Amino acid sequence: MPLQEKNLYVRKSKLPGAGKGLFTKVLIPRGTRIVEYRGTVMTWKEVEKMPDERNGYVFFFTYKYVIDAWKHKGLAHFANDAKGIERVPGIRNNSEYVTEGKRCYIEATRDILPYSEVLVAYGAEYWQVIRYNIRFEERKKLKDARNGSASKLPHHHAAKRRTTR
């Protein structure tokens, strides 16, 4: 059973450019399920039709089952990854995604002190896509500035997860 949500809160992240982050009011011992990742259940084909800005909120199970947390805005939605575009010395991930059946949780991989940010690894593939999209957007802006046209970014990725029994 996840930690009681009253023990979690959202505020500005310690990570540059990350926006809001998920924090704890209490000590979270290693192995504790912190919060469930909730959202709309859909297929990967439906995800591929979504606007690019929504793709960072999709958790992939299978091509026929993904969770889109874009509209849900549950607390898990605000957990950031310390291995992002800009890393901060001394700040590292302290949790991971785990799945049980068709449910996804964020679970502590080490003790998380009170008033600390919950940081979860999104997976290498996530950051590869983000970096690719940044480079793609920069190249397109240069090209568009020369040609006066606009183009669409390629998109969609899924968070890595560990499956439990």
The secondary-structure element order is EEEEHEEEEEHE
Note the gap between the termini: 15 Å
Largest sheet: 4 strands, mixed
Number of helices: 2
Coarse morphology = globular
Could you tell me the number of beta strands? 10
Instruction: List low-confidence stretches.
Output: 153-165
Tally of individual domains: 1
Radius of gyration: 17 Å
Assess the beta-strand content as a share of residues. 25-35%
CATH class: Mainly Beta
- Spatially, the strands of the biggest sheet line up as 3-8-7-10
Secondary structure class reads: alpha+beta
By oligomeric state, this entry counts as: single chain
Shape-level CATH architecture: Beta Complex
Structure, briefly:
With 165 residues, this protein is an alpha+beta fold. The protein has two helices and ten strands, in the order ββββαβββββαβ.
